[in-house]
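Hi support team,

I've been running sequence recovery on a batch of backbones for a student project. Most finish fine, but this one hangs at about 90% for roughly twenty minutes before it completes. I'm not sure whether the input is malformed or the queue is just slow. I've pasted the structure tokens below so you can try to reproduce it. Let me know if you need the job ID as well.

Thanks,
M.K.
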């Protein structure tokens, strides 16, 4: 069984972050492990809580993973601060994963700030250059290249080229909805691949981005190439959004188990 690690934040409500990643790893049939960088305890009735873990606690988790299991691929999600990005880069350089997928999460779908403004530069200069794939959405991509990106395939392609210049081996820009289709563009320095599915009319997509990147990480760990891994993961996330869970309290969750349920019918 392939071994996959996620380094990111705990999302108490269960839809996104580490919870989404571990649920997705299980659905994609890989062995999931986690290093928790922060605890996000969103609660619309009180104040939003974000609690950052110490670098000592982060390192202890990472070394436990390496000593007890090892890994075939690694995903990063919420890293929040410059210090956490730097310790993550240090650990990844000491134990280079066969594949590294960096989801540059900045703002959660419920509005929480998951990356401090001051940390963007560290993300760009230190983590992105060692990534095999980065998976920004349009807003994150804009912040990384300091310009607005139009909702057109041609501008997404141009943005992917600019992001590639930051040094990753490939870029997947999630373009959002264009002409009723959910469009993503992959660029690997040689060519483009466009992934499209029909856009589902719902606000209940919390966890979509995390689960998509987690599924890609799992598929790459199994040996699929990026195009195959992304195609499979796009179908997985599509089904998870189609059968979303609405808890009647704002943005609901994707249903991580729906692809498996569909294939068991
Ligand atoms: N309404 C929708 N219908 C179909 N697919 C969607 C829909 N919303 C998002 N997706 C797809 O889900 C995947 C995750 O993308 P999304 O833009 O939600 O990421 P994100 O959560 O914003 O990213 P991040 O985790 O980096 O913050 C993409 O392939 C996107 O096209
Ligand atoms: C701890 C944590 N990490 C990441 C996300 C992004 O979530 P999404 O997949 O909805 O963009 C989140 N909301 N919380």
């Amino acid at each position: 069984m392939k071994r996959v690690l996620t380094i990111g934040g705990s999302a108490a409500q269960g839809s996104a972050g580490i919870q989404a990643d571990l649920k997705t790893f299980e659905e994609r049939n890989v062995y999931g492990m986690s290093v928790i960088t922060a605890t996000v305890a969103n609660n619309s009735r009180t104040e939003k809580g974000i609690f950052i873990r110490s670098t000592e606690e982060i390192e202890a988790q990472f070394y436990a993973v390496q000593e007890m299991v090892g890994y075939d691929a690694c995903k990063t999600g919420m890293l929040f601060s410059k210090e956490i990005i730097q310790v993550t880069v240090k650990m990844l350089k000491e134990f280079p994963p066969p594949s590294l997928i960096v989801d540059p999460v900045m703002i959660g779908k419920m509005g929480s700030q998951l990356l401090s403004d001051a940390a963007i530069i560290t993300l760009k200069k230190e983590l992105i250059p060692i990534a095999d794939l980065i998976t920004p959405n349009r807003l994150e991509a804009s912040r990384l290249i300091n310009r607005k990106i139009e909702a057109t395939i041609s501008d997404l392609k141009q943005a992917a080229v600019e992001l590639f210049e930051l040094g990753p081996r490939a870029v997947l820009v999630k373009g959002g909805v264009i002409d009723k289709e959910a469009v993503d563009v992959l660029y690997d320095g040689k060519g483009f691949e466009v992934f499209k599915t029909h856009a589902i009319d719902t606000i209940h997509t919390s966890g979509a981005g995390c689960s998509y990147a987690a599924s890609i990480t799992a598929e790459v760990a199994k040996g699929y190439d990026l195009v195959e891994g992304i195609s499979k993961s796009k179908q997985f996330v599509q089904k998870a959004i189609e059968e979303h869970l609405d808890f009647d309290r704002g943005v609901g969750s994707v249903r991580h188990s729906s692809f498996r349920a569909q294939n068991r019918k």
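--
Follow-up from support: It reproduced on our side and the slowdown came from queue contention, not your input. The beta strands are 3-11, 31-41, 49-52, 73-76, 100-102, 133-134, 171-178, 181-187, 192-198. No action needed from you.
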